[in-house]
Amino acid sequence: MQLVDFFGQDPYEFYEGDLDLWTWLDDNQATYDIDIITWSQDFVDDILYSTPNIATKWDSLINKGVIMICASGNGYFNVGNYRNFDGSDYRLYPSYYSQWYSIGSIDHETRPVGAPVSTKNGKSIFSSWYESYETGNHIVNWLDPGNGIPALTWGFDGYGQPISIWRYHCGTSYSTPYLAGIIALIITGYHNGIGSSTDPTVQKVIDILQYASSRSTFDQMGYGYVDLYLACGKAYTEGRLA
Questions:
Q1: Whole-angstrom Cα distance, residue 180 to residue 58?
Q2: SS (H, E, C) 18-71
Q3: What is the average pLDDT across 5-16?
Q4: What's the rounded Cα separation, in Å, for the pair 96 and 39?
Q5: pLDDT for residue 7 is more than 50
Q6: What is the mean pLDDT of the chain?
Q7: Strand 83-85 to strand 90-92: parallel, antiparallel, or no bridges (unpaired)?
Q8: What span, in angstroms and rounded, lies between the C-alpha atoms of 195 and 186?
């Protein structure tokens, strides 16, 4: 379900930061079986994502079994404030709020150095591979690939006509949908195990993610990356045991 398009407005005429968006999601969660909400857009930090009324909707969605994940951002953080500095402005992501789980990036590149955007065997601001809490992204919960992500985007042909083309992209905005996909497969695996469409609780999903994470303790890279095969196997087992 696409809720916000490139121009910040979707077919339902919702806008980012709009209570109506969250009211619609809360009211229609069961109708459309909404299990995951993912967000990859930032605001200049004087524009907040939340109001007390929006926060109430977030809590309601979580209580209904929805897990909410967001990009952690690509710039350097102003330590302790969950903000990215892009060189001119501080950018705020939903990870500022406790209801959201924040997703960082790992560099999974296999293309040789020198290929477009490749950072193989190196580090970039799109990666959570930093040596210190002061210079790196230390607020992430999990990591997923975030360098050299093939994505379908708009371009133009030789006659100036719009066409869709594949390009490599980078950033935590692309890591977040990877984890959303893993969560969707966890839910599916749980369904298969339990033999019904009964969803796991948010806490059950988190427990499965933790089980399949590359780290057992939290550090500047959160709990590390999630092993999809471990996660799906654990989800099926948890469904069988439910």
A1: 17
A2: CHHHHHHHHHHCCCCCCCEEEECCCEECCCCCCCHHHHHHHHHHHHCCCEEEEE
A3: 54
A4: 13
A5: no
A6: 80
A7: antiparallel
A8: 14
Residue with structure tokens 């209570």? 19
Residue 204 host element (H or E): helix 202-211
- What are 62-78's pLDDT values in tens digits? 999 999 999 888 776 65
Instruction: Provide the 3-class DSSP secondary structure of residue 105.
Output: strand
Comparing C-alpha atoms, which of 69, 169, 151, 165 is closest to residue 109?
169
pLDDT at 201: 94
pLDDT score at 124: 55
Written as six digits, the tokens of 94 are 């939903």
Q: What is the largest CA-CA distance in the chain?
A: 59
Contact 82, 216 (CB under 8 A): no
Q: Could you tell me which CATH number the domain at 19-175+203-226 has?
A: 3.40.50.200
Kindly give the residue spans of alpha helices, DSSP state H, lying in 153-201: 172-194
CB 162 within 8 A of CB 206: no
Q: What is the pLDDT of residues 174-190, one digit of tens each?
A: 899 999 999 999 999 99
